[in-house]
Structure formats: structure tokens, C-alpha cells
UniProtKB/TrEMBL annotation:
It comes from the Eukaryota. It is a multi-pass membrane protein. It comes from Athelia psychrophila. GO terms for molecular function: transmembrane transporter activity. GO terms for cellular component: plasma membrane. This is MFS general substrate transporter. Its main location: membrane. The lineage of its organism: Eukaryota, Fungi, Dikarya, Basidiomycota, Agaricomycotina. PANTHER family: MAJOR FACILITATOR SUPERFAMILY, MFS-MULTIDRUG-RESISTANCE TRANSPORTER-RELATED.
């Protein structure tokens, strides 16, 4: 498999993330979370098998795009599932654990693929490993994942009561709603995320920044082989191990969030009760993490030299993983808190734009790092905006006298 084809398999898979959020979010609000998870992940698993037995490069690329489209279901709907189960006080801990997973996967993937390449096995084994992993995850979903979407649970309960009693008077409110036309459905499910995005300057700013961060993560898939394989002479397997500090940094970020920041948020809830905590409180983490993100890239850039130990750029991944995890935790929570009932649309628009960046950055990363070198390639107002928002439901709550801590 050529280098260009390998890059396209990443970009097209992430491009599928642009399509998936527009489908799986609305479908989960019609049919419930569980059926969408089960169906989408099963089809994703099937597409891994299809990629493994493909007979042409075109088939591999098509199945990668379709696989990414169906893989977007858990990526998109897991946040909604977390919101179904946990309230604002406890949601942050659950979201912290969820945020770690999307960074652990991309970090472990190059390691597994690298050792498959070193072993001399066919590239098809990359997809067979993905098939095995996806199949195990699908079985866990089938056996352990309950339905969590309240309207879907009410419909199920009403149907069960009608069947048991034979009386039609038991029904859920959503069963009596007028059926939407195709135009209404398209407007509410496909158009609203972009309508919210382009009408909201604060959402636009967050989305642009998160897209840049997300694109930089995927750019590392091209940068790391240049630094650790070409400069330091490691094989593909050892070079893949250089990604492991990223999830280590993410784990440190999750632990510090649970131990330090979440207790501060709980105290803020007590101080502002009965009003909600202003969403801007969540941004403190991003304010701290954003400079670390820039520092980590400069660290990686200016230690990427054959004359410097490989450990120096490798350990930059710890700070990079920490900063990315805190940035995403802060901004995900902020969007949910600020937009409440249209948060699904805000998150969908954000996911689509982030995925476009994640798909685009690897396409020019190799040429950029080759032309500029690792050194230069890697170097080179919230409340006010929210008051002007058409969709955010609340202005910042008035400050209260701080509660003394014992």
C-alpha cells in the first residue's frame, strides 16, 4: 500500500465523520439510542471485513469512507447518552472518561499497525484486527447497553401497557405528535446545526479553534513517522510506540479534572444555586490548557533532530495529550451548558467542522514537513458573545457572595 493511499484511508475515514453526525443524532431522537448504536456499529464492523477482502485501492477507499460514516454514531451519540444518564453536577466526570477514548484510539492504532507492518504480515491484517475489535465492542453494546433516551423509553412503556391491558388510552406524548413532512424533517435535522453555527459567533469561534486542534492531532500521524522513522531510524512498530505518551497525558488530564476541577464546579453550583453556574466557568480549563498546547508543539518541533534524544520529542506528547484533553473537556461542557436544548445541533456542527479539519490536515502534512522540516512545520470574549446569542437560553447569573470553605 503506497504512502498516498495510506494517507487517504485516514482522511476518507475522518470525512465519514462529517456525514455521520447529521444522520445518527436525529435518528437516535426518533428511534432511541440503543437501536442506532447496535445498527451503526454492526454495519461499521461489516465494512471492516469488506475493506480486508477488497481487491482494489478504490474499494478500500470507499469502504473506509462508509466505515467512518457509521463509526460516527458512537462518536456523536455518546455525549447524548451521557447527558441522558448524568446531570450537570456529575456529567463532567463521565465526559472526562469519554474524552480520553478518542485520543487513546488514534494513539494505539499506529502502534498496532506498525508492528503488523514490521512482522511482514499483509496490510489486510490491519482491517482484520479492526474487525475483531469492532466485533467484540458490538457484542458488549448488544449485551450491556440499555435504552437511555427518555421519549423512547416512554414509547416503549406505553406500547407494553397497551399490549398488557388491551386499552388504547396508554400512549406517550410523542406518539400523538403530528408527523413531519420530508422538508420539515430535513430543516430540523440537517439545516439547524449549520443555522446555529452561522448565527452564533461564539460557537463559530469555538468550532474554528477546536477544528485547528483536531487537525493538528491528525497531522501528527504524518509528522511522527518523519521524525522517528526518518530522523531516528526506528522501524514502524517502534515509531508507533512514540504515540503512547498522548493517552498518558490524556489520563493525567482526566485525573486532574476529577480531583481538582470538578470539586470546584460543585462548589460553584452551591454558590450560584438556585441559578445555574455560568457556562463561562467551564472555560477556565481551556484558558490554562491552550498555552500548554502551543508550548507542546514548540517542544516537539525544536527537539525533532537526529542529534537530540528521541525521548525529548516523544515526551512532548504527554503535555500535548494533557492540553488537548482539557481543551476538549472545557469546550464540550461549555457548548452543552450554553446551548442546552439545541446543544445536539451545536455539537453536530462542531463535529462536522472538526472532522473536515481532521481529514484535510494529513493531506498536506507530509509535504509541509518535507519542505519546511520538523522544526518550522510544527512551529510555524465569552460572556459578551453569549449575551448577543439567539440560541443560548441564559445570560450570566449575577455574582453571589462566596461561600466560605472549611
Amino acid at each position: 500500500m503506497s504512502e498516498e493511499l495510506g494517507t487517504l484511508t485516514i482522511s476518507l475515514f475522518v470525512t465519514g465523520y462529517c456525514v455521520g453526525p447529521l444522520l445518527w443524532g436525529p435518528l437516535s431522537e426518533v428511534y432511541g439510542r440503543r437501536p442506532v448504536f447496535i445498527f451503526a456499529f454492526l454495519v461499521y464492523t461489516i465494512f471492516q471485513v469488506a475493506a480486508a477482502v477488497s481487491t482494489s485501492a478504490a474499494q478500500v477507499l470507499v469502504f473506509r469512507f462508509l466505515g467512518g460514516t457509521f463509526a460516527a454514531a458512537p462518536l456523536t451519540n455518546s455525549g447524548a447518552l451521557i447527558a441522558d444518564i448524568w446531570d450537570a453536577r456529575t456529567r463532567g466526570k463521565a465526559l472526562a472518561m469519554f474524552t480520553l477514548a478518542p485520543f487513546a484510539g488514534p494513539a494505539l492504532g499506529p502502534t498496532v499497525a506498525g508492528f503488523i507492518a514490521v512482522s511482514g504480515a499483509s496490510w489486510r491484517w490491519v482491517f482484520w484486527v479492526l474487525t475483531i475489535f469492532a466485533g467484540v465492542c458490538w457484542l458488549q453494546i448488544v449485551l450491556t447497553l440499555p435504552e437511555t433516551y427518555a421519549p423512547a423509553l416512554l414509547v416503549q412503556k406505553a406500547k407494553r401497557m397497551r399490549k398488557e391491558t388491551g386499552e388504547p388510552r396508554y400512549y406517550a406524548h410523542t406518539e400523538r405528535l403530528a408527523k413531519k413532512t420530508l422538508a420539515q424533517t430535513l430543516n430540523s435535522t440537517l439545516a439547524r446545526p449549520f443555522r446555529v453555527l452561522f448565527a452564533e459567533p461564539m460557537l463559530m469561534a469555538i468550532t474554528v479553534y477546536m477544528s485547528f486542534v483536531y487537525g493538528c492531532v491528525y497531522m501528527l500521524f504524518e509528522a511522527y513517522p518523519i521524525v522517528f522513522t526518518e530522523l531516528h531510524g526506528f522501524n514502524a512498530g517502534i515509531s508507533g510506540l512514540m504515540f503512547l505518551p498522548l493517552p498518558v497525558g490524556g489520563l493525567i488530564a482526566v485525573v486532574t479534572y476529577i480531583v481538582y476541577f470538578n470539586p470546584r464546579y460543585e462548589r460553584a453550583m452551591a454558590q450560584h444555586a438556585p441559578n445555574p453556574v455560568p457556562p463561562e466557568f467551564r472555560l477556565e480549563m481551556a484558558i490554562v490548557a491552550a498555552p500548554f498546547f502551543a508550548i507542546s508543539f514548540f517542544w516537539f518541533a525544536w527537539t525533532s533532530s537526529a542529534s537530540v534524544s528521541f525521548a525529548a520529542p516523544m515526551m512532548a506528547g504527554v503535555l500535548l495529550g494533557f492540553s488537548i484533553c482539557w481543551i476538549f473537556l472545557a469546550l464540550f461542557n461549555y457548548m452543552i451548558d450554553a446551548y442546552l436544548f439545541v446543544s445536539a445541533s451545536a455539537l453536530a456542527a462542531n463535529t462536522v467542522c472538526r472532522s473536515l479539519a481532521g481529514a484535510a490536515f494529513p493531506l498536506f502534512a507530509t509535504q509541509m514537513y518535507t519542505a519546511l522540516g520538523p522544526h518550522w512545520a510544527s512551529s510555524l470574549y465569552g460572556p459578551t458573545l453569549r449575551i448577543k446569542s439567539k440560541y443560548a437560553p441564559s445570560a450570566p447569573a449575577p455574582p453571589k457572595e462566596p461561600v466560605s470553605e472549611v
